[in-house]
What we know:
Blueprint: H1 2-28, H2 34-53, H3 58-72, H4 79-101, E1 103-107, E2 121-124, H5 136-144, E3 146-152, E4 159-164, E5 168-173, E6 176-181, H6 182-186, E7 202-209, E8 213-217, H7 220-223, E9 231-235, E10 249-256, E11 261-265, E12 268-271, E13 274-275, H8 281-287, E14 307-308, E15 313-317, H9 327-330, E16 333-334, E17 338-347, E18 354-355
Antiparallel strand pairs: 1-8, 2-7, 3-7, 4-5, 5-6, 8-17, 9-10, 9-17, 10-15, 11-12, 11-14, 12-13, 15-16, 17-18
Helix pairs in contact: 1-2, 1-3, 2-3
Amino acid sequence: xxxxxxxxxxxxxxxxxxxxxxxxxxxxxxxxxxxxxxxxxxxxxxxxxxxxxxxxxxxxxxxxxxxxxxxxxxxxxxxxxxxxxxxxxxxxxxxxxxxxxxxxxxxxxxxxxxxxxxxxxxxxxxxxxxxxxxxxxxxxxxxxxxxxxxxxxxxxxxxxxxxxxxxxxxxxxxxxxxxxxxxxxxxxxxxxxxxxxxxxxxxxxxxxxxxxxxxxxxxxxxxxxxxxxxxxxxxxxxxxxxxxxxxxxxxxxxxxxxxxxxxxxxxxxxxxxxxxxxxxxxxxxxxxxxxxxxxxxxxxxxxxxxxxxxxxxxxxxxxxxxxxxxxxxxxxxxxxxxxxxxxxxxxxxxxxxxxxx
Length: 357
């Protein structure tokens, strides 16, 4: 009975040794020295035979196999590091898979969906406050998404020129270029071109609140049709309009379904001659002063104008139609260009945090 138990324990230990050796070989088989791989296979065969018969010099065979495994996959003093690296790689692969097939983060860059979802917003703030200095500055940003931004004069002089780029204005002061993000100027105040700035003086300073960061459900539209009222993210790859950026994503509300004729009358969406009141959000947008209703513009410049959607198109509009480049200007979005509906605001931790309605 004692011999049986010893043999059973030995077989179990040898199985674990063999598993470790096979793992080392499989991990490095494509890049290791073929001679080292062959030596490891021979050592494994010896241990496997001892495990089967229970006869042979176990200690010597295991030492030989261990040395051969180290030659293939060195483990001295760095096995812990290697294992941690492997764990990180697996975790990253899992995260990439989740992003590719299930949920993808997306940030709201503009105010086209306000007040349902916020893009970058700013407030006048000439000087930093108590919570705008480290380490409180980082904590404030982490929790609220709010930070203090300032652009100071690098040279003395007046504003000689101001040219608008894609994301920033380039101001020239004293012959030196100054980059000012578009949102700091266009959503705040203008600059006094006659003011003489001294080097180091604040040109513009403000509190900046990051736009809402959302998660998009990439699986839903694989099993369900998009629905009117969905706040959805779509690819702009097939949109032809001079102001629409190529190879990017927009987020808008779905107001028109395939085959429908869409109009805007009295600030309400009209589909095939019927005023859209469902889901209730459409009535809210039309009547709540904070939304200002759907405004006529672009291809729907008058109440009589119509956008005819094809059998595969959906019409997308921002909730803040006073400040939205949307389907009124570029028409319908094809079904295949949708990434999915927004379903959760995960940051910042402000009033919009939580499930997207």
